[in-house]
Amino acid sequence: MQDQKIRIRLKSFDHRLIDQSALEIVDTAKRTGAQVRGPIPLPTRKEKFTVLISPHVNKDARDQYEIRTHKRVLDIVEPTEKTVDALMKLELAAGVDVQISLS
């Protein structure tokens, strides 16, 4: 697996979950002898929604809601076979979306 790199992208609505998951991945990769770059925080996507409170009149009465999507990127340089096996067996939090690409 020389000259290969594993890129892991994490997405979550909760920044504490994503940071905890990133630390677990870094610890697992370093324990197996791989070199890790990151976690690198990417820009947070903020989606805002405005909803009318009243069903009929009172256009001024509105609520605003916001969803923040936090993202992190980790690069594992020179992964070993043990690194790949350990990452496959790793249990992460349910609220974290993980995308893995090999290059």
TrEMBL record:
Residues 7-101 form the Small ribosomal subunit protein uS10 domain. One of its GO terms (molecular function) is tRNA binding. It holds the Pfam family Ribosomal_S10. InterPro entries: Ribosomal_uS10, Ribosomal_uS10_CS, Ribosomal_uS10_dom, Ribosomal_uS10_dom_sf. Involved in the binding of tRNA to the ribosomes. HAMAP family: Ribosomal_uS10. Belongs to the universal ribosomal protein uS10 family. This is Small ribosomal subunit protein uS10. The gene is rpsJ.
